[in-house]
């Protein structure tokens, strides 16, 4: 099974439930700050999903997206929900997949009016290509109930702000049309989620929205006609197939190359061991093709890991003394290391899980301190190799 899950976030309870119904054996995962995730796998799939409800608004979406990324180190992050259509060719129940997201509320107010200063984030090329392939093949409609017209999938910009738009005549509606006339849909969380993904490097983030209204003053009517659950079901169906494909793509990219291929690749570089102090060398080689897995030898004692943790604590103290680590971060890291030490006392499946989780939390705390991050990567690999 792919060890890196796909994180799926939603803003509304009905959106959350639509995704949860696609999970087998969802189990509660409590974050130390109170956020509750449910982790399961997709039906008839090996893809693991971590699901969370973030509430309305870009700010809460950004905070909890960052929390989910730090907690699970996912292969990708999806935001799934409903939105209002901004163009007449998009029908109720259709699905809009963001090619990029506008955070449209940024700007400056001057004597001659409001000047827009938007921010925009693009969806990663690879994720966009996978989503388009799914739309072309129509594989995502297999689990939809048969009821009339098959929904279409549209690719284009989505506008994300802090208000619910339900008018074509208001000043706000006119301003959106004037400044963001290429946006296909409007919603309230996408900008926060994609910004969190942007700040975490190359993490693929995709915003998927089912169209439940037309943002034109008829929202009350379409809500009464139950377009929200219908639109959510369509978005969830597309998201489930996309999650499976993203997980499979990630897993395939992590597979080692075939033996025949690797034998034909000579190493010409001379590699020098530059590890210092208590640092430990995980792999010393020239160009490395394919993936690397560092594990303990069969039946190796866990004292190796205990020694590594002790060395890491020494390096941690030195980094703190040198002023490269603030006191709050140091205290938080020490708390997680205490959890790791406790979990290491008994080699059970539950304690191994606690150990790796604590070390991943440490990684999130010290990720920008290079002299610690490299050593911790080897320790995490050792912990994952315990059996």
What does this structure look like?
The chain has two domains: 6-253, Rossmann fold, CATH 3.40.50.1580; 270-384, no CATH class. The chain has a five-stranded mixed β-barrel, surrounded by five helices. The radius of gyration is 24 Å and the shape is globular. The relative contact order is 0.13. The chain has 387 residues and is of the alpha/beta class. The protein is 42% helix and 20% strand. It has helices spanning 13-20, 58-72, 125-137, 171-179, 190-198, 219-224, 227-253, 259-263, 303-321, 327-344, 349-366, 370-384, and strands spanning 6-10, 23-30, 36-42, 48-53, 76-85, 95-103, 107-110, 113-116, 119-122, 153-160, 185-187, 205-213. α3 (125-137) crosses α7 (227-253).
Strand adjacency order, main sheet: 5-11-10-6-12
Instruction: Tell me the major beta sheet.
Output: 5 strands, mixed, barrel
Structural class: alpha/beta
CATH fold descriptor of the largest domain: Rossmann fold
User: What is the CATH H-level superfamily of the largest domain?
Assistant: Nucleoside phosphorylase domain
What number of structural domains do the residues give?
2
Distance between the termini: 16 Å
**Radius of gyration, in angstroms, nearest whole number:** 24 Å
Average predicted confidence as pLDDT:
84
Helices and strands, in order, run as EHEEEHEEEEEHEHEHEHHHHHHH
The CATH architecture classification of the largest domain is 3-Layer(aba) Sandwich
Helix segment count?
12
């Amino acid at each position: 099974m792919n060890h890196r899950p796909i994180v799926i976030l939603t803003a509304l309870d009905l959106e959350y439930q639509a995704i949860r119904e696609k999970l087998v054996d969802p189990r509660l995962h409590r974050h130390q700050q109170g956020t509750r995730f449910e982790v399961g796998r997709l039906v008839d799939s090996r893809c693991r999903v971590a699901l969370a409800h973030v509430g309305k608004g870009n700010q809460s979406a950004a905070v909890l997206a960052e929390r989910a990324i730090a907690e699970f180190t996912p292969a990708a992050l999806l935001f799934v929900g409903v939105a209002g259509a901004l163009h007449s060719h998009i029908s109720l129940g259709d699905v809009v997949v963001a090619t990029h997201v506008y955070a449209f509320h940024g700007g400056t107010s001057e004597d001659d009016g409001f000047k827009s200063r938007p921010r925009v984030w693009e969806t990663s090329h690879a994720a966009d290509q996978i989503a388009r392939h799914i739309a072309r093949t129509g594989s995502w409609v297999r689990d939809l109930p048969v009821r009339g017209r098959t929904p279409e999938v549209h690719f284009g910009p989505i506008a994300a702000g802090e208000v619910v738009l339900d008018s074509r005549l208001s000043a706000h509606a006119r301003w959106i049309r004037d400044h963001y006339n290429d946006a296909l849909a409007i919603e309230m969380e996408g900008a926060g989620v994609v910004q969190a993904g942007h700040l975490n490097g190359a993490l693929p983030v995709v915003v998927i929205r089912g169209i439940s209204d037309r943002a034109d003053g008829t929202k009350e009517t379409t809500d009464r006609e139950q377009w929200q659950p219908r639109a959510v079901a369509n978005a969830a169906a597309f998201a489930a197939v996309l999650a499976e494909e993203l997980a499979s793509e990630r897993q395939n990219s992590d597979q080692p190359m075939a033996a025949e291929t690797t034998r034909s690749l000579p190493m010409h570089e001379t590699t020098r061991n530059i590890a210092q102090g208590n640092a430990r060398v995980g792999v010393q080689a020239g160009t490395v093709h394919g993936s690397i897995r560092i594990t303990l030898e069969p039946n190796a004692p866990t004292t190796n890991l205990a020694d590594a943790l002790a060395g890491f604590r020494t390096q941690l103290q030195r980094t703190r003394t040198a002023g490269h680590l603030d006191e709050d971060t140091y205290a938080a890291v020490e708390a997680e290391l205490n959890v790791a030490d406790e979990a290491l006392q008994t080699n059970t499946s539950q304690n191994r899980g606690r150990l790796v989780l604590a070390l991943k939390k440490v990684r999130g705390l010290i990720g920008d301190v290079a002299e610690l991050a490299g050593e911790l990567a080897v320790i995490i690999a050792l912990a994952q190799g315990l059996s």
